[in-house]
Amino acid sequence: MAPMIEDQVREAEADAAIELRVDEISQLFDTLDPFPFRERDLDEDAEAYFVGWARELPKDRPIRIIVHIPIAEATTENALELGTALKHYFDYRAGAVVLDLNELFRIGRRSIAIGMCALAVCIAIGRMIAGQLGAGYLARFVEEGLIILGWVANWKPIEIFLYDWWPLVRQRNLYRRLAAATVELRPYPPKATHS
User: Fold this and answer.
1) CA 184 to chain centre
2) Predicted TM-score (pTM) of this structure
3) Which sign does the torsion angle of CA 10, 61, 99, 48 carry?
4) Among 84, 67, 60, 50, which Cα is nearest to 171's?
């Protein structure tokens, strides 16, 4: 019974792993970035690979990143700092998304204030015009048209507070999960050369 449980545990752990194979650790990072290795940005393709796989992993398990590299590369300084570099990068990305989220809510608050003022002005003007025109169809048309215009002015802030922030929260949480991922190096032997 114990081997079966161990196999299930291994299988469950494998479900939450992102694996990739590179010849050099530096392939994962932007070579044009002038910062020291542990502060460099990930290469766009590498980030897309990590994020794409992380989205598919179960959300209730911690993520493991397994990097297969040549034995000679496994002892380099870059390989030893890979976990720190990935954590730093994904923490930075999560922080950037938090700033985007804060900016979205700031815009939403400003938009709702403008939208509510527009609604109040439209209602006031609609009632004033309806009072001048009497109880006919034209007065009703103008009054209701202005009320609709006032509510349309609130469309964007309502959209921000009801829907637009969810994707940013999901993205932030994904980056946080990637920042917390354990990084494992798995060296492989050099390719055999045929003479």
Assistant:
1) 24
2) 0.77
3) positive
4) 50
Sequence-ordered list of residues with C-beta below 8 angstroms from that of 14, at least 6 positions apart, any chain: none
Mean pLDDT of 115-127: 92
Q: Is 97 exposed, middle or buried (0-12, 13-18, 19+ CB in 10 A)?
A: buried
Tokens 């010849």 — which residue? Answer: 23
Q: Contacts by 187-192 with C-beta closer than 8 Å and gap 24+?
A: 187/68, 187/69, 187/70, 187/71, 187/73, 187/74, 188/21, 188/68, 188/69, 188/70, 188/71, 189/70, 189/71, 190/70, 190/71, 190/72
Contacts of 140 (CB under 8 A, 6+ apart): 130
pLDDT at 161: 93
Residue 40 reports pLDDT greater than 70: yes
Token reading at 187: 């060296």
Q: Which two tokens stand for residue 101?
A: 């989220």
Q: How many residues in total does the chain contain?
A: 195
Q: Are 178 and 51 in contact (CB under 8 A)?
A: yes
Measured between its terminal Cα atoms, the distance across the chain in Å is: 49
